[in-house]
Design the sequence.
């Protein structure tokens, strides 16, 4: 075991008694054993402390710290990053689970690909009783992930493994109450390569307390700001089209605008985005065109507009673009 790289799993917990033991045991039961689990009790008021103490008595790999006042998930994660010893770290949420072979597969990939600084996986959505009901399948390759980041967070938070060498310069933004992971991944994507293992190695729990109603608008606002930060490099006037772009990325549709009118506005924006990228050369031309088209197809499918999806204003017969769109769609259908 000593010959295998140490992996540090960090887990902030605030009033997580309902699901945390299941999550912790999913870490400790990994087939990859050279793990340390660092837990930050973010001033919980439920039985979180008692559960941590009991589990620490069962496994010496668990270490814990406590915030005297509730500080939020970003600050709690940064407090834990100060204490990790591993070559790699994973940010596990206390209501999510990892499957037994997850860490082993990620370490194997990272060790074989030193150019990759961040590796995620696909995930299955589960409910309060850990019953599966959906899938999260983000792009696999580095270029597709980085382009996808302008539309949405494209790494599943509890799936991600990161090289610890980045910690000294890159930390979570403690001012963000939500989207702190999305912000972090985007910043890391500017300095290293990314990868998603196309296997469902995480159970991502959806339940009533995932995010409060009061934070829903903040989630939208922060997400838009992160998208704009990327889009502005492609198109200096991107802010004018941000609401449209955000709806496409979030698969949302306006209630008060006829679909035919909205479809035209969306298509015009994506056509402009492709043209602006051709000029700014922020992303490789064909790869960008293909991914934007792929996102457009996903957006139209929900409205059952297959013809419009396949023949938009930015339609092209370029073989590389056609091949990459087909590849992205095949991977989505295969999953």
Sequence:
């Amino acid at each position: 075991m000593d010959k295998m790289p140490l992996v540090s799993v960090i887990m902030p917990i605030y009033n997580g008694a309902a699901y945390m033991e299941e999550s912790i045991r999913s870490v400790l039961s990994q087939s990859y054993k050279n793990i340390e689990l660092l837990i930050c009790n973010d001033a919980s008021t439920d039985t979180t402390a008692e559960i941590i103490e009991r589990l620490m008595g069962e496994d010496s790999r668990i270490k814990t710290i406590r915030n005297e006042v509730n500080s939020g998930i970003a600050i709690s994660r940064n407090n834990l990053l100060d204490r990790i010893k591993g070559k790699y770290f994973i940010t596990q949420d206390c209501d999510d689970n990892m499957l037994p072979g997850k860490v082993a597969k990620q370490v194997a990939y990272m060790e074989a690909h030193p150019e990759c600084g961040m590796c995620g996986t696909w995930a299955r959505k589960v409910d309060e009783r850990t019953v599966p009901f959906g899938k999260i399948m983000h792009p696999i390759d580095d270029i597709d992930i980085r382009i996808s980041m302008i539309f949405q967070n494209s790494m599943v938070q509890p799936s991600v493994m990161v090289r610890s060498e980045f910690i000294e310069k890159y930390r979570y933004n403690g001012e963000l109450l939500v989207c702190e992971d999305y912000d972090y991944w985007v910043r890391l994507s500017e300095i290293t390569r990314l990868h998603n293992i196309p296997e469902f190695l995480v159970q991502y729990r959806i339940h009533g307390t995932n995010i409060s109603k009061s934070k829903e608008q903040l989630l939208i606002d922060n997400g838009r700001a992160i998208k704009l930060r990327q889009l502005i490099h492609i198109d200096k006037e991107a802010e004018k089209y941000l609401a449209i772009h955000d709806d496409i990325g979030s698969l949302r549709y306006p209630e008060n605008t006829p679909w035919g009118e909205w479809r035209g506005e969306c298509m015009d924006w994506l056509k402009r985005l492709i043209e602006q990228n051709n000029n700014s050369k922020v992303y490789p031309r064909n790869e960008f065109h293909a991914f934007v088209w792929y996102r457009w197809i996903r957006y139209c499918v929900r409205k059952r507009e297959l013809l419009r999806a396949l023949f938009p204003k930015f339609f092209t017969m370029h073989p590389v673009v056609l091949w990459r769109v087909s590849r992205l769609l095949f991977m989505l259908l295969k999953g």
Summary: Residues 269 and 335 are 29 Å apart (CA to CA).
